[in-house]
Amino acid sequence: MAGVEFGSDYDIARTRKMNAEAEMSELELAKVHGALVVADHVVDAWNDVLGSFKAKLMSVPSKLAPIVSAEDDPALCQKIVEDVINETLEELSSYTPEIDPTKANVSEIVEEEKPKAKRGRPKKTTAKKVLK
User: Fold this and answer.
1) Which of 4, 45, 76, 112 could join 99 in a cystine, given CB atoms 3.0 to 4.6 angstroms apart?
2) HSE-up of 57 (CA within 13 Å, CB side)?
């Protein structure tokens, strides 16, 4: 019988290769449809959001200190604090991160291919180059 036998090592390896290629195509399609995102891009987007959140929260005391220090009524102080916190939360609710994890390139899902090794004989060096 000529050719590759069913169930041979070659047949198994070829099947694995075809399955891997099909899976890669499915991943690319999911990426195009926005059903797949790169985890690093999600982390970057969250870091951006949390950084903005921290900056807004850190600005609250400097906004409140001069206003609250002039007040004697605890209920009014509480109202002022609540208003500033609600204002800050509203600003944050409309925040859009600079990084959109759904806009990553499909090629970033898979590690970039290593450059292929050059084939052929190495270049000859002349005796002058070797002696220098």
Assistant:
1) 45
2) 6
